[in-house]
Input
Amino acid sequence: MPVIKYLGSKRLLVERIVTLCQTLHPNAGTVLDLFSGTSRVGHALKMAGFGVYANDHNSYAHTLAMCYIQAHAPRLRDDAQRIIDELNTLPGCAGPFTKTYSIDSRYFHPDNARRIEAMRNRIAALDLEPELHAVVLTSLLEASDRVDSTTGVQMAYLKSWAPRALKPIALRLPNMLPHPEGRPCRAFNLDALDAAHGLSADIAYLDPPYNQHSYLGNYHVWETLVRWDHPETYGIACKRIDCKERKSEFNSKVKIEHAMRRVIDAIDAKTLIVSFNDEGYLSREQIESMLEPLGTVAVIDHDHPRYVGCKIGIHNQQGQKVGRVGRVRNTEHFFIAGQGAEMFIETQQAAAIAG
Output
């Protein structure tokens, strides 16, 4: 499965999400993952036999989805392994990436930054077809994640090198999957509203950004590694300049309700599942109100630990620890609406009676 460290990752909830989709659609079917992120959920659904449409507007997330959702493992595995083996032999080569993310900032030890740069330049020179390009690039992205020196997000880097940052970078073949028999698996790089208007599925799964934390701002290094555009940067964190411009309405307390309503209204699916955190800008009551026009609404609450960075503590932009996180657990709300909601309630009631 995808292994990148990620704020909002559903690592601890994936099994429950897959079970929920299987309950709602026992014979499998198609799932639209509108905010796919690391593609961890889509990957698990694909493994369970569902067809998956994965969408995300960030380039690094689209690359992950191309690898884990759209790529067909039997066709690409051997070529990807050959290229990965070659990349692992390359010596380092310093350039703009090394300067920005190892000299001007300290995301990577210089030895690893130079090798990341050499590998990425080689990938660009190979001019691979899109799916193979995504698989190899995902291998580099995940390997870079294993040797970074951050608190789990790229808002800051550590003052002293993290132990993992001193290890030499090594690429591995991503855990790709074959396509389920007769099921489509595609990756899209669209705005959520455009994807909602253009794609249809049996189940639509929505896990949108829910507060002020921008995924682009938190993972700007991965965006640059994928785009390889060497953008102008700003601040101690060396963020891409477009972090100031590419804003999501879902990160705005004022705009999120309108954005969420428009996406829900545009969805073409028999059943809608919305995952939303109790740290989010929208309340449980607000989301239930948005879903009521679809019919019956069921809600499941799941308590789980917060993202991995909260265990590390609060750091300033110099990477110095300046505080502790007061809250280490969250409640994730799963809202089910549409045709599947009544069936889910009946299944739960039957299980309760049987128990």
Remarks:
- The longest helix spans residues 110-126.
